[in-house]
Amino acid sequence: MTTRQNGRPSQLFRNLNAKIASIPMILTALVIFLGGTAWTVFYSFTNSKLLPRLNFIGLDQYERLWAAPRWMVAIENLAIYGVLSLIFSLVVGFLLAALLDQKIRFEDTFRTIFLYPFALSFIVTGLIWQWLLNPDFGIQGVVRGLGWESFEFDPLYNAEIVIYGILIAALWQGTGLIMCLMLAGLRGIDEDIWKAARVDGIPMWKTYVFIIIPMMRPVFITTLVIIASGIVRVYDLVVAQTSGGPGIASEVPAKYVYDYMFHAQNLGQGFAASTMMLLSVIIVIVPWAYLEFGRRRHV
Amino acid sequence: MSDPAALNVAASGFEAVAKDVSDPRGAKPRRVLSRRNIFLYGTLILIAVYYLLPLYVMFVTSLKGMPEIRLGNIFSPPVEITFEPWVKAWATACTGLNCDGLSRGFWNSVRITIPSVVLSIAVASVNGYALANWRFKGADIFFTILIVGAFIPYQVMIYPIVIILREIGLYGSLWGLVIVHSIFGMPILTLLFRNYFTSVPEELFKAARVDGAGFWAIYFKIMLPMALPIFVVAIILQVTGIWNDFLFGVIYTKPESYPMTVQLNNIVNSVQGVKEYNVNMAATILTGLVPLIVYFASGRLFVRGIAAGAVKG
Question: What chain B residue is nearest to A28 in terms of C-alpha separation?
């Protein structure tokens, strides 16, 4: 096939092949990403039950949502899980990267080991940790078997701390990725800065805290956005590890949406909950995009 | 347009990791057993043990018999090695009424993953090529929507897609799921290919144009052969991502065609019957095996893939 060059092609037929080739992208962008999102937000104002219906009831779904104990548990879990996984991922990820950046031998081996859980799915991760945290046979059972009879470590069966059990699994799975991003950032820093700091006799930890970390600001921001957008989506891990239990103690918003759409046959409620998820992502993404845009424009 | 740029920063950083440090540096060579080294390697080895322990526990559990599991310690190696749990997990474990084991889920996952990987990469590579070399008016707007869309929680778009698939008669079929994977793989893959094709010298493209080559001729004869490494990265990214998917599998397929992850979850978390932990662990390893093999076989290319795919979450 050749591009049309005979005569004077009209505007529409310029680059026709490129336009035809881009049809899947255009459809995805317009129909799914824009259209689908708008559709869901739009229908969250209706009282759709089993099937989507255009029967508007204003903000009723949202009022019901924020009055539902299950949703409140889900939000609280997401908040605890989100804050802690953000802090721990960044701290642990950075420390691991800093350790690997000490010009050590076998760096590749260590990196391979720290990163391999990231290749596993959340389902597999959740099931591994469900077994490790099994109160009878897992870590608790082993420590008790050693003679410490009163030892207690059963996060998955204790409604108070179940979300921390999920956090442990999530950190095991995800810190390798953060380490890799941080390591890339550390490698991007000019070697001369280290030399200058050493000449000036600045201790290593001070160099990290006051010089290197501020220089890595863009890396930290990118990492933050990546972690944050992952947090909102947490779903498979909870399904595999606890199925939301004990009771409703480990519910998360993504699971709430799924259950209301496909099991409770209360679509409107599911749409309202997913719209709230969208809102929380917007709150994270928009300031970041604004910062990036603003900075680029000045430069 | 800010997102791709930020990701580029991360991606180019990864190249730096991959490069070997070869210039001489540092003061005089240190002694091997300095206190610093003992502390450094000690810490690293401890952490490595922590990361490896779950894999080890899973493996030894899957080789024990149930009596040994009930009496023993999850960390101890099996006294009597048995492969029965593996056989059972693969061939006879039950989900609901079906008792043909994980093998069905495995083949379903294969049937889902291969067409999804091929279709999503074919579409995205052509898209990326069009965006890089044949820019048309408005292309950037669609691309920006696509990249921003990568951050929208899937839950927002799940139901409209159910309706669309139902309208075209693909809801519940493997091909419906293939389309869904292609849609959600598109942002990151298009970004990957666009960035790659943008870095190809423009003279090459212009020379081909002068010789009369069109859109597809340039794509197949020049761009495709040159982009093989990036195709490998894309394949790694998609194979692990699609194999590990749970949400789309559970929504867009019927129980007979559930992918492996969904079936695994159903086997392990079924409430009926006595829990057979050894079978569960064998099944879990079997499900994790494909991405693990891809990971260990691909090495640094995997790191490059996740650098680009991190936004997929």
Answer: B183
